[in-house]
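Exercise 3.2. Students should predict the tertiary structure of the chain below and write it as structure tokens, then compare their answer with the key that follows.

Predict this chain's 3D structure.
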Amino acid sequence: MPAGRYVEAVTDATFSLAPGECLALVGESGCGKSVLASALLGLLPGNAETAGSARLADGLDVLAADERTLARSVRGRRIGLIPQSPAAHLTPVRTVRAHLEETVRELAGRAPAAGGSVRPVPRKRFGKPDLRAAAQAAGERAAFPATHLDRHPHELSGGLAQRAATALALVGDAPLLLADEPTTGLDRDLVRRTVDELRAHTREAGRALLMITHDLAAAERIADTVAVMYAGRIVEIGPAGAFFGRPGPRHPYARGLLDALPERAFTPVPGAPPELGALPAGCAFAARCAAADQICRSRRPALTEGVACHRA
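Answer key:
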């Protein structure tokens, strides 16, 4: 992006998540899904600007929180993160066990209080056997094999690195978990196991899950609500049962995503998404939509009753 040029990476993203609920945010690469997750954790670049609010159940607005509050009271404690590129988030000179033990020690030393402050509590003293047991238990929750706990990140496959990152995210039992492509690099059996573990973490423990994914099969297995993002905007949001069953998606782009699945029509969405810095005046999907008319090309549709489409 040229110097001094700004783009709206995410616009008008409005949704809510209740305890025990999973929302799957789906869409093509570059549509703004991961930017949204980074904004919720205050991990955007320094030149990024945010507006609006993102409130947790206790009233804390994470978009307005300062770095100290985010670091000491939000990340890992209120909001856990499974990153999209786990290998880049693991320290290369430390083993998986060392990562897990450090996380256990850190999260046991402070407790978040209402309003975003941190309430110091006596730091629990862990003996070496306790830490080893805690690290192994954390790994088991994410299907990470105990035989690999003493390996370094470069000794892990992509799937194992993903499971290590999942284990780290689950240590703090945060009430909200952001999972950014948590099934990347996993075979289908491990995808199902990972998704089932995340579903149990969400529903049985009464925690909320925002799952960002390209894997519609995984989304169908876990999601209560599906939100489809295109060119930085949510173009459809609604119950997962209606989205994957009947009556099905209402937005033509959302229908195209399902039709591209091998078990369905296996027909890819034609064309390519527009650049965020050069969005058209009307609907961003109009150039790829067979049903688009002059209204679609000249006027941007608002999200109304769960869909942003003039033709829905």
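Discussion points: The domain at 87-174 is CATH 3.40.50.300 (Rossmann fold). The beta strands are 22-26, 79-82, 110-112, 118-120, 176-180, 208-213, 225-230, 233-239.
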